Amino acid sequence: MHLCAxxxxxxxxxxxxxxxxxxxxxxxxxxxxxxxxxxNLTKGNQPVIIASRDLEKAKEFAVSLGSSATAxxxxxxxxxxxxxxxxxxxxxxxxxxxxxxxxxxxxxxxxVSNPIAPDxxxxxxxxxxxxxxxxxILSELTPADTVFVKAFGTLGAGSLVSAAFSExxxxxxxxxxxxxxxxxxxxxxxTASGFAPxxxxxxxxxxRIEVFGDLHEFGALGKTVTLEEAGKxxxxx
Length: 237
Ligand SMILES: NC(=O)c1ccc[n+]([C@@H]2O[C@H](COP(=O)([O-])OP(=O)(O)OC[C@H]3O[C@@H](n4cnc5c(N)ncnc54)[C@H](OP(=O)(O)O)[C@@H]3O)[C@@H](O)[C@H]2O)c1
Description:
With 237 residues, the protein is an alpha/beta fold. The chain has eight helices and twelve strands. The strands form three sheets. It has an eight-stranded mixed sheet with strand order 5-4-3-6-7-10-11-12, sandwiched between helices. The chain has a two-stranded antiparallel sheet with strand order 1-2. Strands 8-9 form a two-stranded antiparallel ribbon. The protein is globular and about 45 Å long.
C-alpha cells in the first residue's frame, strides 16, 4: 500500500510496511495514553513490551492485546527495548529519566507529555512558563547518549484510538526531533500505529505540538488533519 507522506516540507511516496517490525518498543505506564498507544501499535503489527509498576496489571493487559504484546518489569523492559515511551506525566518523566539513566543509554526516548493541570474552573492551565515546552525541558535532562523525540501527544487519548487507521487517508501525527538519523524508526512507528508521520522540525518546535500549541488538537489546530491539511497548517504561522 502507498501513502503520501510529507516530511521536511517535501512530499514523497511512502511504502507502508505490513511486515512485523524488529524494532523493540517499550511502553511504560498503563494509563489512558499508554493503553491507547499499545492498542494501536499491536493492531499495526508492531510488537510492544508493556511495563507498569504493577507487573500483574501489565501481564493482564498484554494478554488482552494478543501475541504482539509481552509484559516485563520496567527496568527489564527498558533494557530490552530500542525505543522507550514513558507514558506518564511530565514531572514523573523527569524522575524516570534520572532513575533509569543507566538503562536508557543508547535508546530512543519518546516524550508524549503535555505540561498541564486542572485550572480549578473546569479547564486546564500550563504548569510551566507559557513560552516553554515539556519537550525542550525534558530533552535537556536526558542522558547524553540517548535520542530524544517528541511524539504521540498531539491528540487526546480518545482521538488517538478513534482517528487511527482512517481510510481512505490516514490522519497525521506530528513529531519533533533533532537527530534526524532516527526519523525512519519514528516514522515506521507512527505508521504502524495507524497515522501518517509529519516531522515539524527540531525539539525547539515541541511547543507547537503540545496542548495549547498551534498544531495540537487542544490548541489552535483543534482537530485531526490529513497530510495535505497538515502541510498548510504547519506553514500558516
Ligand atoms: N490523556 C490524554 O488524552 C493525553 C493526550 C496526550 C498526551 N498525554 C500525556 O500522556 C501522559 C500520560 O497521561 P495519561 O492520561 O495516560 O495519564 P494516566 O491515565 O493518569 O496514566 C498515567 C500512568 O502513569 C503511570 N505512572 C505514574 N507514575 C509512574 C512512575 N513513577 N513510574 C512508572 N509509571 C508511572 C501509571 O501507570 P501504572 O498504573 O501502570 O503504574 C499511570 O497509569 C501525560 O504526560 C500526559 O500529558 C495524555
